[in-house]
Design a protein that fits this description.
The complex is a heterodimer of chains A (787) and B (263).
Chain A (H helix, E strand, L loop, with lengths): L14 H6 L15 E7 L5 E7 L1 H4 L4 E6 L35 E2 L5 E7 L2 H10 L1 E6 L6 H5 L14 E7 L4 H10 L2 E12 L8 E7 L4 E6 L4 H13 L6 E4 L15 H12 L4 E4 L2 H7 L3 E12 L5 E13 L26 E10 L13 H19 L3 H8 L6 E2 L5 E2 L4 H11 L5 H10 L3 E10 L7 H6 L8 E7 L5 E5 L8 H13 L6 E4 L17 H27 L7 E4 L2 E4 L5 E3 H9 L14 E6 L8 E10 L6 E11 L6 H21 L29 E4 L19 H20 L13 H8 L2
Parallel strand pairs in A: 1-12, 10-11, 14-15, 20-21, 27-28
Antiparallel strand pairs in A: 1-5, 2-4, 2-6, 3-5, 7-15, 8-13, 9-10, 9-12, 13-14, 16-17, 18-26, 19-20, 19-25, 22-23, 23-24, 26-27
Helix pairs in contact in A: 9-18, 14-15, 15-16, 17-18
Chain B lengths: L4 E3 L4 H10 L3 E4 L5 H6 L7 E4 L9 E4 L2 E5 L4 H7 L4 H8 L4 H6 L2 H7 L6 H7 L3 E4 L3 E3 H4 L14 E7 L3 E8 L6 E10 L2 E7 L7 E2 L1 H9 L24 H18 L3
Parallel strand pairs in B: 1-3, 2-3
Antiparallel strand pairs in B: 4-5, 5-8, 6-7, 6-8, 9-10, 10-11, 11-12
Helix pairs in contact in B: 3-4
The chains are: A alpha+beta (787), B alpha+beta (263).
Bound molecules: flavin-adenine dinucleotide.
Chain lengths: 787, 263
């Protein structure tokens, strides 16, 4: 292993030095000479017809450069949706236009109507106040059931209804599942809400558009998880700028959690306006604006039925879900409740028949899209809650019920279209029971009861599909893009290495972990290797970071490119040592000839590549730089078992998390410390969903939880010290590193065990409560106890 | 933010003068409430008169049975220096986060009279006296409903005098998002009786729970309030708790405050 950390070393994150000392370079740190500022005048009603916009007075205000309205974007494309879902009748989803600035109607509070570009931000805001809007307010469509009712007000007048699609999966199973449920010995039914969340990355979104009149080149600096995706969508679909004339830069990004995957109106606006105004244009979201314009997450209402035979074997699962799309289709919105949700419905269990029905609905709310876990938390929550409820109804131990139904043989083809390559759910559950000391629970419950507190234990398993995704498969499922990734390994003359990667790091620690892999392969120090990411003018065409894909997909590309480097370097070394290429071995940063003491150092070979005086020029080119694209053969399937213990104050309903144990199988691990950190962060978000976070609209479509005064983020003292274990490892069989992905597991795996634990606590206190919808805030728990 | 003038006097008399010159002037305490309001463009004063540089408005001192806090004293100073009145020091030490406690002031908090703020409960339960640049106002007369007080325009709270009780405690049940009081109850026991003030709960802002006061004056034990309740009608009902839940918490927090009360 390299002395400063190869594969398996808990190397400290090198990027933290700059982040923690204020030396990061975030988009808002980028100021282009002569830049103007844009302020968006946003709708303050959820639904309305725009009868007039008078910008006359505003135009005359000091500092105003230009005021844009929807009319300025009439010849321009709308924001595209990246995934076409076909409904269960074979028809394409209803896909309304999504203009950059509102045209004709406003459809949610926060929908941008006008964009005021001025010399200063305050001038832009002053001018925005002088714009006179004539908006006729229309009834707001907020509740999904009401949105689907006959005669409901339509969010989009040109669509048939507010139904985006009615998706059935696997449609051929529909009747068989109905039959199995009818004939089951026992059916457990659970109706639940997976509430809407706001992603809330620490850094709000920012965009700076720049246009070079001399060359015709456009540059967009933006807070994105995937600059090439933005370049593709914005260049090809919205603004019609060819890729060689459009550079997208996503520098340091302060967290995304999914919300910075999507192509947003503000990005297209700043790029467009920079040319139209012949001046760089900058936008920085305020936190209030983030609440009204960042795509939000989750928002499913589900009924799930679990059928069991007389021996408690699962025989069928049927789900019926309403999924809120919000007012427009955000980039990947349509894939979340379908292909990222339905295909996970088997979980860790061998249920032979599954049918998932999802109706996606338009409402006058902020668009909803992928948020950490994206569809998989929704699937896991339903399944792991209904299993717990079934165990209670049947009077059996919830862990035993799970164990009895575990998938134990791999590969395993689920009835919902995917094939799990590896996993060992028995081993992770065994490990959980040990690490969480489940046998000691009874004593801990007694101790809590002596203090007047109710104590509960909740357990759940999870499976997820990461490393998105095999392009040919997702293409069949409606994806409008490929989902490979790419890496270029550039070895410099003196042996140091720059690796240009398509993945983007915004908290994941790639700058530390990716070099660990290359260093391990070459036997050189990791400090000799550096990652370059986030700039389409520097990196190969990769698809970015989401869906726990960076290492599994982009890391695989990097491995392939490094293998090419090694092959070529061996040829050069063979030439230098006048030996046969087949005899060359690479070890600890030196090439040697097998069975001899001849060797040349890494640096001698790299120098020879760039100073090819003694070099096999007739056989190979000089230089040492290789690119690989990698398209995964399958998803990866991380899995795990989680346990949570809570105390509930019976007088106030307040829930305190006493312990949380996470046992995950991520396959091979590059940097255990970073993996722990990813799991910690994910669990914090999961606990946030389970106990605290709730994005609430009132009946008029006004966002009630529009600031941190009302939207409860988890804080350090809301979460316990976690026990995290990654010793169970079943490596992925189809990628070169055997890695599975760990970025979302914590957020996917944690909400059910928290809720299961609270229900367990209440039951132990003699309360007949079988379900409480998240967040389990003190008032909701108290109401359930006293209801 | 709209533009405004900022004045930073170092003497109280100058501040009083600056504030009386124009009706469009506002005192600026720690700015923890006022600055966010300005950033949202919800207020447009012509002039802010910062009280932060006025030494005579700062500090905590104890004389006889009275603890006096200067109107411009930040919460962190009260937390550190009001040892003679431990319940008050503890309350101050649990407001917001360190940044809020180092900037926010007692005068700003009382003048603002947020229905969920902590200090109003302490002032009312202690029967404190609010001293201004022109008069003294009893706490019982000062709070006049949500965000409303007896202060005239431009009037500055210069000090707050707290009679030190025999025993007291403040129980704050935090609203999960803001961590202001969803319900906060301050109980203070004096030789002539017990005072109970409730914040966070009522649509009318901070109030005294007289039924509990009578019961506790007769018998200062948690059991004495068992069975007493405030009506849900008139309580705040919002995202974080119904009227009934808040009414229920008033009882629970009162009991807990009595059980925890110390001298
Ligand atoms: C994140 C956060 C968390 C918080 N948590 C809590 C909490 O848990 N509990 C709680 O009680 N509070 C909380 N607060 C509010 C905090 O205590 C503020 O300090 C307080 O509300 C206002 O005090 P200030 O000195 O900052 O006043 P400012 O914001 O400067 O002023 C508020 C108002 O009072 C006026 N004013 C200021 N000083 C005086 C004076 N001496 N005389 C007359 N008028 C004056 C101003 O003109 C203005 O109208 C929190 C605030 C924040 C930002």
């Amino acid at each position: 292993m390299p002395k400063d950390g190869g594969i398996g070393a808990s190397t400290k994150r090198r990027e933290d030095v700059r982040f923690l000392t204020g030396a990061g370079n975030y988009t808002d740190d980028i100021n282009v000479r002569g830049q103007a500022y844009v302020h968006f005048l946003r709708s303050d009603v959820a639904h309305g017809r725009i009868n007039g916009i008078d910008t006359g007075a505003a135009e005359a205000m000091p500092g105003v450069v230009r005021i844009f309205t929807g009319a300025d974007f009439e010849g321009v494309g709308g924001l595209p949706c990246g995934w076409l879902v076909t409904d269960r009748f074979g028809q394409p989803m209803q896909e309304p236009p999504h203009p950059v600035l509102a045209q004709g109607k406003v459809r949610h509070v926060g929908d941008p109507i006008c964009a005021v570009v001025a010399d200063t931000l305050e001038q832009a805001r002053d001018a925005a106040e002088a714009i006179v809007l004539d908006i006729e307010e229309l009834p707001a469509v907020v509740d999904m059931k009401a949105a689907l009712a006959e005669g409901a007000t339509k969010v989009h007048d040109d669509l048939k209804s507010n139904l985006c699609y009615d998706w059935g999966f696997v449609e051929e199973n529909r009747e068989a599942v109905d039959k199995a449920i009818k004939e089951a010995a026992h059916v457990t039914t659970l109706e639940l809400v997976n509430q809407r969340l706001v992603a809330n990355p620490m850094e709000p979104r920012v965009a700076v558009g720049e246009y070079n009149r001399g060359t015709g080149d456009h540059t967009l600096y933006t807070t994105s998880q995937n600059p090439h995706v933005i370049r593709l969508l914005m260049g090809a679909f919205v603004l019609g700028i060819p890729e060689h004339k459009l550079r997208v830069v996503a520098p340091d990004v302060g967290g995304g959690f999914g919300s910075k995957i999507f192509h947003y109106a503000e990005e297209a606006f700043c790029t467009f306006a920079a040319k139209a105004c012949n001046r760089p244009v900058k936008w920085t979201a305020s936190r209030s604006e983030a609440f009204l314009s960042d795509a939000q997450g989750r928002d499913h209402v589900t009924k799930i039925e679990l059928a069991l035979d007389k021996d408690n074997n699962f025989t069928a699962i049927r789900t019926d879900t309403l999924a809120n799309m919000g007012a427009y289709l955000s980039t990947f919105s349509t894939s979340v409740p379908t292909w990222l949700h339905g295909v996970l419905m088997a979980g860790n269990y061998k249920t032979p028949l599954i049918y998932v029905n999802v109706r996606a609905v338009f409402t006058n709310t902020v668009p909803v899209d992928a948020y950490r876990g994206a569809g998989r938390p929704e699937a896991t929550f339903q399944l792991e809650r209904v299993i717990d409820k079934a165990a209670r109804e049947l009077g059996v131990d919830p862990i035993a019920l799970r164990r009895q139904n575990f998938i134990t043989e791999f590969p395993y083809a689920t009835p919902v279209a995917v094939e799990y390559d590896t996993g060992d759910y028995v081993a992770t559950m065994d490990k959980l029971e040990e690490v969480a000391d489940l046998t000691g629970f009874a004593a801990r419950r007694k101790a809590s009861e002596a203090k007047g507190m109710l104590r509960g234990l909740g357990v759940n398993c999870y499976i997820e599909a990461c490393g998105i995704a095999p392009s040919n498969l997702v293409g069949q499922l409606g994806a409008r893009a490929g989902l490979y990734d790419a890496a270029t390994v550039r070895v410099n003359a003196t042996g140091s290495i720059s690796v240009m990667v398509g993945a983007h790091s915004h908290g994941q620690g790639h700058e530390t972990t990716f070099p660990q892999v290359v260093a391990e392969m070459l036997g050189i120090d990791a400090s000799q290797v550096e990652i370059v990411h986030g700039d389409t003018s520097k990196i190969p065409f990769g698809m970015g970071t989401y869906g726990s894909r960076s290492l599994a997909v982009c890391g695989s590309a990097m491995v392939r490119a490094t293998e090419k480097i090694i092959n070529k370097a061996k040829k050069i070394a063979a030439h230098l040592m006048e030996a046969s290429e087949a005899d060359i071995e690479l070890k600890d940063g030196a090439f040697s000839v097998a069975g001899t003491d001849k060797s040349v150092a890494w640096g001698d070979v790299t120098l020879a590549a760039y100073v090819p005086h003694n070099y096999p020029l007739e056989d190979i080119e000089p230089g040492l730089e290789e690119t690989a694209f990698y398209d995964p053969a399958n998803f990866t399937y991380p899995s795990g078992a989680y346990a949570c213990e809570v105390e509930v104050d019976p007088e106030t309903g307040k829930v305190t998390i006493e312990s949380f144990t996470a046992v995950d199988d991520f396959g091979n691990i590059i940097n255990p410390m970073i993996v722990d950190g990813q799991v910690h962060g994910g669990i914090a978000q999961g606990i946030g969903q389970a106990l605290l976070e709730h994005c609430v609209y009132d009946d008029n479509g006004q966002l009630q939880s529009a600031s941190y005064m009302d939207y409860a983020m988890p804080r350090a003292d809301d979460v316990p010290f976690y026990a995290v274990d990654h010793s169970c490892k079943t490596p992925c069989t189809h990628n070169p590193l055997g890695v599975k992905g760990c970025g979302e597991a914590g957020a996917i795996g944690s909400p059910p065990s928290v809720v299961n634990a609270v229900i367990d606590a209440l039951q132990s206190g003699g309360k007949n409560v079988t379900h409480i919808d998240m967040p389990l805030s003190p008032s909701r728990v108290w109401a359930a106890m006293n209801g | 933010m709209y533009s405004f003038e900022l004045e930073r006097p170092t003497r109280l008399a100058d501040a009083v003068k600056l504030l009386s010159d124009s009706t469009e002037s506002l005192p600026l305490g720690g700015g923890q409430t006022l600055i966010p309001t300005l950033k949202q463009r919800l207020a447009s004063p012509e002039r802010l008169v910062s009280l932060a540089g006025i030494a005579e408005l700062k500090g905590v001192k104890t004389e006889g049975g009275t603890l006096t806090v200067g109107g411009g004293t930040p919460h962190a100073t009260v937390a550190a220096e009001a040892g003679a009145y431990p319940a008050l020091a503890a309350l101050a030490g649990n407001i917001g986060d360190p940044a809020v406690r180092n900037r926010g002031t007692i005068g700003g908090s009382l003048a603002n009279n947020d229905p969920s703020a902590c200090y109003p409960a302490a002032a009312l339960a202690s029967g404190a006296t609010l001293v201004t640049d022109r008069r003294e106002i009893a706490a019982d007369d000062f709070f006049q409903g949500m965000f409303s007080t007896a202060l005239d325009e431009g009037e500055i709270i210069t000090a707050v005098r707290f009679p030190i009780p025999e025993a007291a405690n403040y129980q704050k049940f935090e609203q999960p998002a803001s961590r202001f009081a969803l319900v906060g109850v301050f109980v203070a026991k004096y030789p002539d009786g017990v005072r109970v003030a409730v914040t966070g709960a009522s649509e009318e802002g901070v109030f005294r729970w007289s039924e509990a006061e009578t019961a506790l004056s007769a018998d200062f034990r948690a059991e004495a309030v068992q069975g007493l309740s405030v009506p849900a009608e008139g309580m705040i009902g919002d995202l974080h708790g119904s009227k009934a839940y808040r009414a229920h918490l008033v009882g629970v927090m009162t009991k807990r405050a009595v059980a925890a009360a110390k001298g």
